[in-house]
C-alpha cells in the first residue's frame, strides 16, 4: 500500500508554519490542511510543531567505500547514514577498489544506490586511470552511461600534472561536467602528517603547508579561465585559498568551492591529543583559517558545505598518529555542526543553509529533481529537523558503519526527525526506515 503524508505545522524558510501534503512523490499542497484520505492509500499524519522543513540535503563529497572496503561502509550503510543526516542525494567519490574510472564501475555504484533506496547516489568518475594522474579516464563513457556522471575527481589524490588537468577541464565542457580538484601539491606534502605551523613544530610531526593547497588552486583557476571550463575546489581549508577563490570569482572565472564541517569547527590544536581521529586531508588548520572559511562561506566565496565523509576501520584509527588513516565521518554531524558554527553565530540564516547544503550542491552536480524549494509541485525531497534539540555525539549510536567521528562526546544542536525521498520516508521518528520499506 502506498502512503500519503500530512505534515502538520512545519516551519518553512522565512514563512509561517504550514501543513504539507506529500503525495505521489511530490509536494501536493502547502498551506492549510487539505489532505483527504484516498482509497487504498494510507494517510500518515506527522506532528511537525516546532520542526523546520528544509529541502533534502545534497552532499557533493561522500566516500561510500564500495566496491573494496565494505568493512568500513557500503552504498547501503552510507546512504542510510546520509538519510539519517537529512540528505536525499550524495556524490560517491571515485577512490574505491577498483577505482570508479570506467562506465562499468560507476554504473555498478549507481545501481547499488537505487537498490539501497535511501538517497540518490550520484557516482563521481575518476579523472585519471587508477587515480594515477597520468592517463585520462574514459570521462565521456562515464558521462553517457546510465550513471550520467557530471562530477569528475581524483579525490584522495591531486591531479598535479597541469597538462592532464587542462585536458580534463577541456574535455568535460562537451557534456557540462565539472572537475572537482583535491588541491594538494604532492611535492610540498611528502610525508606530511598535519598542518605546518607552530603546533606541528612543537609536536615534531611533518607539516602540510597551506601553500601546497593554495598553489594548486591558483594554478587551476587560471587553467579553468584559459580553457573556459568549470572547476570545483574540494575541501578548501586555508585563509589564502579563500582569497584566491574570491579573486577568481571577481575576475569572472567559473569556479565553485566547498568547505567541510570539520574545517569550520576544529583546529590543528586538536593534534596535541595525538588522537588520529583528528587526522584528515587537508589537515585541520589554525583558528585564523577557521575564521576565514566561516567568513568565506558567509559572504558566498565558498559555495557549499560538503561532508567529505571518510569512514575508516578502527584498526586504522586506533594507532599512533603517523600510522593513522586520513579522514573523518561527517554525514550525520554536518547539519548540527553548521547550525552550531554558522546559524547560532548569526552568520547564516536557515535559507542560506538550504542554499549551501542543498540548492547549490545540486546545481554544481547537475542533480535533477534535487535542491528544489519546498513548494507545491516540487519533488517531495525534504528533511524535518528539530533545531531546539541538543545531543551528544555517540559513535556507536551512529548509522554509519565506521566510528571515526572527531565529534565523539561533543554536544551539538539539532536533530533530523524525518527525511523524505520523493515522498517516501527514509527516516521517521529520528530513525532510518527499514531497508525493505524504503525500496519496496
Ligand atoms: N579526506 C580524507 O582525509 N580522506 C579521504 C580522501 C580525501 O578526501 O582526500 C579518504 O578517502 O579517506
Ligand atoms: Zn580530498
Ligand atoms: Zn574526500
UniProtKB/TrEMBL annotation:
Binds 2 Zn(2+) ions per subunit. The keyword Hydrolase applies. The active site is at residue 308. Its EC number is 3.5.2.3. Substrate binds at residues 63-65, 95, 281, 312, 326-327. Catalyzes the reversible cyclization of carbamoyl aspartate to dihydroorotate. Belongs to the metallo-dependent hydrolases superfamily. DHOase family. Class I DHOase subfamily. This is Dihydroorotase. It comes from Georgenia deserti.
Amino acid at each position: 500500500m502506498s502512503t500519503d503524508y500530512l505534515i502538520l505545522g512545519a516551519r518553512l524558510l522565512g514563512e509561517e508554519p504550514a501543513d504539507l501534503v506529500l503525495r505521489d512523490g511530490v509536494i501536493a499542497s502547502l498551506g492549510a490542511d487539505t489532505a483527504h484520505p484516498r482509497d487504498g492509500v494510507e494517510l500518515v499524519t506527522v506532528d511537525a510543531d516546532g520542526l523546520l522543513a528544509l529541502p533534502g540535503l545534497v552532499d557533493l563529497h561522500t566516500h561510500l567505500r564500495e566496491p573494496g572496503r565494505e568493512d568500513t561502509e557500503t552504498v547501503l550503510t552510507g546512504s542510510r547514514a546520509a538519510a539519517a543526516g537529512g540528505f536525499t542525494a550524495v556524490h560517491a567519490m571515485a577512490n574505491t577498489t577498483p577505482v570508479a574510472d570506467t562506465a562499468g564501475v560507476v554504473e555498478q555504484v549507481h545501481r547499488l544506490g537505487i537498490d539501497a533506496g535511501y538517497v540518490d547516489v550520484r557516482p563521481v568518475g575518476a579523472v585519471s586511470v587508477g587515480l594515477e594522474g597520468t592517463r585520462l579516464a574514459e570521462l565521456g563513457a562515464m558521462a553517457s552511461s546510465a550513471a550520467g556522471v557530471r562530477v569528475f575527481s581524483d579525490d584522495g589524490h591531486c591531479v598535479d600534472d597541469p597538462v592532464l588537468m587542462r585536458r580534463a577541464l577541456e574535455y568535460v565542457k562537451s557534456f557540462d561536467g565539472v572537475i572537482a580538484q583535491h588541491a594538494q601539491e604532492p611535492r610540498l606534502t611528502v610525508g606530511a602528517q598535519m598542518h605546518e605551523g607552530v603546533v606541528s613544530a612543537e609536536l615534531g610531526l611533518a607539516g602540510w603547508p597551506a601553500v601546497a593547497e593554495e598553489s594548486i588552486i591558483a594554478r587551476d583557476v587560471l587553467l579553468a579561465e584559459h580553457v573556459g571550463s568549470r572547476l570545483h575546489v574540494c575541501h578548501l581549508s586555508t585563509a589564502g585559498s579563500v582569497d584566491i577563490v574570491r579573486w577568481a570569482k571577481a575576475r569572472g572565472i567559473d569556479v565553485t568551492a566547498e568547505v567541510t564541517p570539520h574545517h569550520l569547527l576544529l583546529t590543528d590544536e586538536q593534534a596535541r591529543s595525538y588522537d588520529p581521529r583528528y587526522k584528515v586531508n587537508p589537515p585541520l588548520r589554525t583558528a585564523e583559517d577557521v575564521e576565514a572559511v566561516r567568513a568565506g562561506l558567509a559572504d558566498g566565496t565558498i559555495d557549499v558545505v560538503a561532508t567529505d565523509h571518510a569512514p575508516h576501520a578502527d584498526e586504522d584509527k586506533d594507532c599512533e598518529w603517523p600510522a593513522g588513516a586520513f579522514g573523518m565521518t561527517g554525514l550525520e554531524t554536518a547539519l548540527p555542526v553548521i547550525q552550531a558554527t554558522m546559524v547560532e553565530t548569526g552568520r547564516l540564516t536557515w535559507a542560506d543553509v538550504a542554499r549551501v547544503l542543498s540548492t547549490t550542491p545540486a546545481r554544481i552536480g547537475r542533480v535533477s529533481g534535487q535542491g528544489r524549494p519546498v513548494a507545491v509541485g516540487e519533488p517531495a525531497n525534504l528533511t524535518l529537523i528539530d533545531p531546539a534539540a541538543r545531543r551528544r555525539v555517540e559513535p556507536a549510536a551512529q548509522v554509519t558503519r565506521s566510528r571515526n567521528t572527531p565529534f565523539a562526546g561533543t554536544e551539538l544542536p539539532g536533530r533530523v526527525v524525518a527525511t523524505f525521498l520523493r515522498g517516501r520516508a527514509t527516516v521517521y521518528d529520528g530513525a532510518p526506515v527499514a531497508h525493505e520499506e524504503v525500496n519496496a
